[in-house]
Amino acid sequence: MIATVQVGIYLVFMLAIFLLCVWALIDLLRRPSAAFVSAGKRTKGFWGAIIGVSTAVSFAAVPFPKGIPTFPLFLALLCAVAAIVYLVDVRPALGPYSRRGPRGPRGPQGPSRGGW
């Protein structure tokens, strides 16, 4: 009984790490290469390699079809760290350089000044 619950928790945890890596990879592929250089971050190729390998490793860590965890947990945790670093540090820095159109995300009035 307890072993089944543990395997279920492990499965959910590994799926969450895999989905986090997929989210980071999709976001990375949508960003222009020039935005990375303009933001002062590493190149898109560097982050593509890191996040691509992390996505592949996290996919391999999902315990299908047996449901028995056989993959080293620390590798999956390293994949999560790579995706989190990209999503928390690099992605916000790329935001101002990745906007589409000359007016930015809010249209002709520019950023909100607050108030009523």
- β-sheet strand percentage: under 5%
In helices, the fraction of residues equals 55-70%
How many structural domains in the coordinates? Answer: 1
Biggest sheet descriptor: none
Low-confidence stretches: none
Global outline: elongated
Instruction: Give average pLDDT, whole number.
Output: 84
- Element order, helices and strands? HHHH
Computed Rg: 19 Å
Say how many strands there are: 0
Number of helices: 4
N→C terminal distance: 57 Å
Structural class: mainly alpha
Task: Explain how this protein is built.
This protein is an all-alpha fold and 116 residues long. It has one domain (2-95). The protein has helices at 2-30, 33-38, 44-61, 73-94. The chain is elongated.
Describe the SSE topology.
Elements: H1 2-30, H2 33-38, H3 44-61, H4 73-94
Short description:
By secondary structure, the chain is mainly alpha-helical. It has helices at 2-30, 33-38, 44-61, 73-94. The chain has one domain.
